[in-house]
């Protein structure tokens, strides 16, 4: 137990759990998917369901564990943090130490995420057993899927920024693997790359932000950081704005905020369960989670950054949402709607609506997973992603249809489904915090949301069937998860009705309030009926307009895109040219820049190196040929010639006969002796 | 084990390989199995000794030199046989002995023409002596000898077993065989640098006479240096001379061009050793010699080094993006990765130096593994052209999987070894040593961070080109042997270590942290 | 003076050696002749030592040196001769003119 943890929630919990086996061993939640990953890799192929057993077992375990934590937190409030040191290095010339730790955090925010990831993940995994049946790489799919869930759990369980980064990029990696699951086709592997790469660009922000925070306060711990951010008057204050902006940039990538949203629609290249999990519980919620986790930094120190964040969120929620209106691929409609909803969450958190943003994240997870799984069931039945191949499926697939309707109504924000409550809280927060214009943008967004959802429903389930073959309802292993998600999608909103207290359990706001420091966020005490009515009216208007425009059976693409607003329509089709801009940038780096560098390397630097070599060789040739051979060598050669002449004269003496030499030798000695004797 | 601590342990680690190479000469040429086993036994014994060194190393006083031996050697110039390890050199020494074992295992049945395992293994063993010796030498003359000893075997490895492709290089009138060009370029380039380095050593030797007896002893020179003995123009020039020697070896931009050629042309094992260990000799020289002996001058040079380092990061990444040859791409990636190491060193802080060391270790493991894989692939496909590869994952699932893993490690995925070096050198650059220009270093940090994006770019691009997609038509119908047992034996330990260091970097920092802190405190006064 | 007889013996022996060296065609015999010459020198050394009686026994020491060198010389010489014989099937020194220019 970290002694630094002090409860300072705005509305303190009656009792606080800081121990017990469920809390102290919560780290198992983080580990179990990785264990499953290894088991699947090594033993998965031998099992009946090719390894899905391990993945499902791990998440079932997690779901049970997270549910217990969830209930504990619902009734009493949990706050616990445990870390293990993985590195300790000198810092500032040994004056301090920088400690890196891994561990887990158990508080309201983490528990909510644990529950979401585990619960939604479990249902999606079960669904995937049916959906992926007969796929080329089922074993690998479940391995990567476990990695995906595990990385996300590490991300949300991380007690410090470094562990968060590990989970963060792990999620990116797993998404890369899963989006590019059918990597035999280049578009798919490119989509995976685009996702990973866009995220990597954003990660620069996260990493630099983490570095700035870490260096300024000498630790990466969230609790410490929140405490210092609340106290103020320390090293953090000076860098807070820069760090906050950088961290937000990181969150923009993960949570697909404009203009870094471009990867998300392409990510539909992966199998549908991947999309469901990615959009509902893992991956895209990471950015919003990060903003929530570092909320005190934004709330207390980096206030200057918040308006910019709100603006980006607002652009995302409205402008990118519009793109969903012109998509033919049903998954892309849902993808753009996710981007739009993430815009809501980000706007809310940035505006100060900590609870509001997270509440929307919570409800959105259920209905978006539901919608994707429904779309997956449809795709499974008609073998096409395109709504132009669908239509009239209401009759063939009743379960899918009705659950899809529930999900759509929830997403559109129709009373009393869950989306209504969370969206209303966001709008209320925006109004109270003074972002009135953005609030109206949000209401406009609600209209757009309802419009494109009605379009999707009409084109998919109403009218006449236009595809090939005979569609049929999905197998039970796929419909049960749909029902399992439809229930919370319908009722999850009741958990946080302002002013309503349920007996025995605490309000959603209070669950999240158990934190180290006071959050200082706004959350409504009672419902603002006028605003709720306006929001609901916008949504209903959207549904109505949608039904008028698309309710009739439409045979051609022109009819399906009945919204051909001049100027805007081509802009929508081209996705505001953001993708092209990004591709252009990539091309610019890859082709001219990289080639120029290589040219520079091969011709300039290597030219100098080789040139030095050539110069040395030329010099050597001159020295040798000019100076040496024709100058110095003349003397030398003259001497040599003389020697040569003398030698060829003398060589006749050299007979090669040893005894001849010996005789000369003896003769010589005799002569010498005689000379000595005579001339002495 | 008294004998081990008295210097015999390190002496054996250093000289057993060369003795092994001598014994190898007595093994008949035809007895290849005996030669391989002998080389394996020698390298295993050396590795085991280095493991014993870890076991007996006192991590509590990692800043002290341990297992020291200091006996007079060349009395006339006061050069001693002074060896020892501290927390900085221990990880690198172990890395060196470890990679050597794997290289021998890998080469078991991977021989480039003209085979001749006897000669090749002998050269590897001699190389091992040079590398291990450089990491334990505490005397400048000894250091220089080991530093240079490395050149020779590598020269022959590249020149004899290297790439026999004939290419027309820009500026050459005729076509040249790559192995010859690369070998000569490597040799001359390094020799050029070390000539200046020797000058620097001699200058230090003679100047040390002004403060007592002349000495080549590194700890003694460090003591003098931290008292401000070598400063001013003298220090500046000496640092410059040493810089040339070490920077060529690292290699730093713009002295790097020998590296892509040498790596590409070298036989697989040669590339691995080159990337995994030889490059580290240069950066190790900076940490062991340049900075502690010439701290004041290091301050002056640091911004320049940082700038060169980030140029290398960006430049290397961009050059990689324009490659068509897989092995050459990996070679160029070393330029960028070593850029991060040098950025860490340039910060002159404990964080930065720690980053440099773990970066060196990680780069050794990861890029070594990448070269192993690239070698195995070109062994099977007989080409390294990425345009002709593709669908490798389908043809060889295990090999492709390992390649994908290694690529992820190389682009610095958190949780794997490569992350810490990059992350911490950026961390160090945010707050460099007091007095250094913050603007330069923070700009370097941002550019370096952008460099990580570019790194991810070319690595993923390479992975997509090589591993993903459908196999090209020319390979359809071929049956490829997936990773065999020798390859797996050599690679699995690397993979495990990459993960272990990634999750638990204390494996490295536990040894280096205290030593680095002590070094920084001695040099720059806490 | 007794030393003269020894010197005369040595001179005779030496001359015999020189004769053998110059005349014999078989390499082995040539080597033997060389031995004779060396031993002649040894006799001289011992004889002078006996006459002078130096404190360091220089003569005897030198004689032993010569014997050692002679042994080595014969060893190497015979080895060469054997190799030559193996290669050329003859140990005739007249035919060994490879060293000729």
Topology of this structure?
The complex is a heterotrimer of chains A (680), B (526) and C (101).
Chain A: H1 21-24, H2 27-43, H3 52-75, E1 80-91, E2 96-106, H4 108-131, H5 138-157, H6 161-179, H7 186-217, H8 222-231, H9 235-254, H10 263-266, H11 272-280, H12 285-293, H13 295-301, H14 306-323, H15 330-351, H16 354-382, H17 393-396, H18 398-412, H19 418-432, H20 436-461, H21 476-491, H22 508-513, H23 529-550, H24 557-560, H25 568-573, H26 578-650, H27 658-679
Antiparallel strand pairs in A: 1-2
Chain B: H1 2-26, H2 32-56, E1 66-74, E2 79-85, H3 89-106, H4 117-136, H5 140-149, H6 151-161, E3 166-167, E4 176-177, H7 178-208, H8 218-226, H9 232-249, H10 258-265, H11 268-293, H12 295-321, H13 326-346, H14 350-381, H15 392-395, H16 397-410, H17 417-430, H18 438-467, H19 485-503, H20 506-524
Antiparallel strand pairs in B: 1-2, 3-4
Helix pairs in contact in B: 1-2, 1-4, 2-3, 2-4, 3-4, 3-11, 3-14, 3-19, 4-5, 4-6, 4-11, 5-7, 6-7, 7-9, 7-10, 8-11, 9-11, 9-12, 10-11, 10-13, 11-12, 11-13, 11-14, 12-13, 12-18, 13-14, 13-17, 13-18, 14-16, 14-17, 14-19, 14-20, 16-18, 17-18, 17-19
Chain C: H1 3-23, H2 27-52, H3 58-88
Helix pairs in contact in C: 1-2, 2-3
In short:
The complex is a heterotrimer of chains A (680), B (526) and C (101). By secondary structure, chain B is mainly alpha-helical.
Describe this structure in words.
The complex is a heterotrimer of chains A (680), B (526) and C (101). Chain A has a domain of 45 residues. Helices cover 70% and strands 3% of the residues of chain A. Chain A contains 27 helices and 2 strands. In chain A, a hairpin with a 4-residue loop joins strand 1 and strand 2. Chain A is elongated and about 145 Å long. The N and C termini of chain A lie far apart (112 Å). The two termini of chain B are 36 Å apart. Chain C has a single domain, classed as Helix Hairpins, CATH 1.10.287.3510. Chain C is elongated and about 50 Å long. Chains A and C meet through helix 27 of A and helix 1 of C.
Question: What are the salient characteristics of this protein?
Answer:
heterotrimer, A: 680 residues, mainly alpha, two-stranded antiparallel sheet, 27 helices, 3% strand, elongated, disordered N terminus, B: 526 residues, two-stranded antiparallel ribbon, 20 helices, globular
């Amino acid at each position: 137990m970290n002694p630094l943890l002090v409860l300072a929630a705005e509305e303190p919990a009656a009792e606080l759990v800081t121990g017990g086996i469920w809390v102290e061993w919560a780290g198992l939640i983080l580990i179990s998917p990785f264990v499953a990953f290894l088991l699947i890799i090594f033993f998965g192929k031998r099992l009946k369901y090719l390894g899905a057993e391990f993945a499902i077992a791990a998440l079932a375990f997690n779901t049970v564990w997270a549910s217990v934590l969830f209930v504990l937190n619902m009734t009493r409030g949990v706050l616990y943090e445990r870390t293990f040191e993985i590195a300790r290095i000198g810092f500032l010339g040994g004056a301090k130490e920088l400690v890196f730790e891994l561990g887990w955090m158990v508080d309201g925010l983490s528990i909510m995420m644990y529950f979401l990831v585990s619960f939604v993940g479990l249902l999606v995994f079960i669904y995937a057993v049916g959906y992926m049946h007969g796929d080329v790489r089922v074993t690998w799919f479940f391995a990567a899927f476990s990695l995906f869930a595990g990385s996300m759990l590490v991300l949300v369980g991380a007690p410090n920024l470094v562990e968060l980064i590990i989970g963060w990029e792990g999620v990116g990696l797993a998404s890369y693997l899963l989006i590019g699951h059918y990597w035999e086709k280049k578009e798919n592997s490119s989509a995976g790359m685009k996702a990973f790469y866009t995220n990597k660009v954003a990660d620069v922000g996260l990493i630099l932000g983490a570095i700035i925070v870490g260096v300024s306060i000498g630790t990466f711990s969230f609790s410490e950081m929140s405490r210092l951010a609340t106290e103020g008057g320390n090293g953090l204050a000076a860098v807070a704005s820069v760090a906050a902006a950088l961290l937000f940039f990181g969150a923009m990538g993960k949570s697909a905020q404009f203009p870094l949203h471009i990867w998300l629609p392409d990510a539909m290249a992966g199998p549908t369960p991947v999309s469901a999990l990615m959009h509902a519980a893992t991956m895209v919620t990471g950015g919003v989670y990060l903003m929530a986790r570092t909320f005190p930094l934004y709330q207390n120190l980096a206030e200057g950054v918040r308006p910019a964040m709100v603006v980006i969120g607002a652009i995302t929620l409205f402008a990118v949402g519009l793109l969903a209106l012109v998509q033919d691929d049903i998954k892309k409609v849902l993808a753009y709607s996710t981007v739009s909803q993430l815009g809501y969450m980000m706007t809310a958190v940035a505006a100060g609506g900590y609870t509001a943003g997270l509440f929307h994240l919570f409800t959105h997870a259920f209905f978006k997973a539901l919608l994707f799984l429904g779309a997956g069931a449809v795709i499974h039945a008609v073998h096409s992603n395109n709504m132009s191949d669908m239509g009239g499926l209401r009759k063939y697939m009743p379960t899918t249809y009705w659950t899809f309707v529930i999900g759509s109504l929830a997403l559109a924000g129709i009373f009393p489904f869950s989306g209504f409550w969370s969206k209303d809280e966001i709008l209320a927060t925006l109004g109270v915090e003074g972002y009135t214009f953005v609030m109206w943008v949000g209401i406009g967004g609600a209209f757009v949301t309802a419009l494109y959802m009605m379009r999707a429903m009409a084109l998919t389930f109403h009218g006449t069937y236009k595809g090939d073959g005979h569609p049929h309802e999905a197998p039970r292993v796929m419909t049960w998860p749909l029902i399992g998600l439809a229930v919370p999608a319908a009722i999850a909103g009741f958990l946080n009705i302002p002013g309503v207290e349920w007996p025995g359990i605490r309000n959603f706001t209070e669950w999240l309030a158990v934190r180290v420091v006071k959050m200082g966020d706004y959350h409504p005490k009672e419902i603002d009926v006028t605003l709720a009515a306006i929001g609901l009216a916008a949504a209903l208007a959207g549904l109505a307009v949608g039904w008028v425009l698309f309710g009739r059976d439409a045979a051609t693409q022109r009819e399906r895109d009945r919204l051909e607003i001049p100027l805007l329509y081509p802009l929508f089709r081209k996705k505001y040219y953001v993708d092209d801009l990004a591709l252009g940038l990539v091309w610019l780096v890859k082709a001219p820049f990289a080639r120029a560098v290589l040219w520079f390397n091969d011709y300039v630097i290597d030219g100098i190196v080789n040139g030095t070599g050539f110069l040395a060789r030329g010099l050597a040739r001159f020295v040798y040929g000019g100076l040496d051979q024709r100058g110095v060598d003349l003397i030398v050669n003259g001497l040599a010639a003389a020697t040569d002449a003398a030698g060829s004269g003398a060589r006749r003496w050299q007979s090669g006969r040893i005894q001849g030499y010996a005789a000369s030798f003896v003769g010589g000695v005799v002569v010498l002796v005689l000379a000595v004797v005579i001339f002495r | 084990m008294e004998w081990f601590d008295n210097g015999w342990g390190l002496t054996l680690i250093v000289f057993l390989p060369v003795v092994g190479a001598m014994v190898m000469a007595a093994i008949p040429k035809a007895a290849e199995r005996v030669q391989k086993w002998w080389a394996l036994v020698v390298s295993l014994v050396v590795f085991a000794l280095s493991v014993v060194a870890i076991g007996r190393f006192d991590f509590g006083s990692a800043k002290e030199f341990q297992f020291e031996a200091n006996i007079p050697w060349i009395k006339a110039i006061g050069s001693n046989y002074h060896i020892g390890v501290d927390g900085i050199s221990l990880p690198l020494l172990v890395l060196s002995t470890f990679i050597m074992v794997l290289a021998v295992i890998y080469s078991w049945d991977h021989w480039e023409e003209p085979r001749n395992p006897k000669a090749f293994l002998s050269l590897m063993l001699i190389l091992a002596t040079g590398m291990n010796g450089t990491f334990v030498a505490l005397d400048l003359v000894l250091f220089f000898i080991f530093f240079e000893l490395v050149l020779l075997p590598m020269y022959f490895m590249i020149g004899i077993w290297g790439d026999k492709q004939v290419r027309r290089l820009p500026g050459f009138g005729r076509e040249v065989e790559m192995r010859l060009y690369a070998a000569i370029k490597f040799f001359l380039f390094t020799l050029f640098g070390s000539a200046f380095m020797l000058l620097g050593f001699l200058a230090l030797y003679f100047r040390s006479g002004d403060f007592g007896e002349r000495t080549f002893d590194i700890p003694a020179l460090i003591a003098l240096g931290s008292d401000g003995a070598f400063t001013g123009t003298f220090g500046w020039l000496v640092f410059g001379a040493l810089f040339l020697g070490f920077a060529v070896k690292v290699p730093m931009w713009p002295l790097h061009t020998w590296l892509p050629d040498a790596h590409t042309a070298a036989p697989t094992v040669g590339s691995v050793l080159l990337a995994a260990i030889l490059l580290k000799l240069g950066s190790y020289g900076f940490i062991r010699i340049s900075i502690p002996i010439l701290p004041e001058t290091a301050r002056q040079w640091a911004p320049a080094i940082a700038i060169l380092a980030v140029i290398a990061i960006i430049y290397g990444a961009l050059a990689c993006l324009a490659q068509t040859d897989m092995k050459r791409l990996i070679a160029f990636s070393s330029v960028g990765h070593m850029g991060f190491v040098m950025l860490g060193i340039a910060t002159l802080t404990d964080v930065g130096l720690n980053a440099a060391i773990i970066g060196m270790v990680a780069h050794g493991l990861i890029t070594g593994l990448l070269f192993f894989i690239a070698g195995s692939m070109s062994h099977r496909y007989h080409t390294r052209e990425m345009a002709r590869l593709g669908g490798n994952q389908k043809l060889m699932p295990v090999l492709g999987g390992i390649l994908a893993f290694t690529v992820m490690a190389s682009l610095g995925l958190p949780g794997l070894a490569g992350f810490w070096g990059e992350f911490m050198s950026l961390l160090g650059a945010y707050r460099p040593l007091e007095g250094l220009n913050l603007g330069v270093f923070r700009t370097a940090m941002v550019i370096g961070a952008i460099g990580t994006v570019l790194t991810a770019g070319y690595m993923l691009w390479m992975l997509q080109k090589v591993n993903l997609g459908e196999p090209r038509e020319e390979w359809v119908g071929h049956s490829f042997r997936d990773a065999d047992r020798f390859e797996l034996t050599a690679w699995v330990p690397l993979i495990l270590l990459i993960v272990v260091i990634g999750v638990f970097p204390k494996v490295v920092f536990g040894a280096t942290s205290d030593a680095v802190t002590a070094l920084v405190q001695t040099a720059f006064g806490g | 003076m007794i030393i003269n007889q020894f010197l005369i013996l040595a001179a005779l022996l030496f001359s015999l050696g020189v004769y053998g060296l110059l005349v014999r065609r078989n390499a082995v015999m040539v080597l033997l002749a060389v031995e004779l010459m060396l031993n002649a020198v040894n006799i001289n050394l011992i004889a002078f030592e006996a006459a002078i009686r130096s404190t360091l026994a220089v003569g005897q020491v030198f004689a032993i040196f010569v014997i050692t060198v002679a042994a080595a010389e014969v060893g190497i010489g015979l080895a060469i001769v054997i190799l030559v014989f193996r290669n050329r099937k003859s140990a005739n020194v007249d035919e060994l003119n490879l060293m000729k220019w």
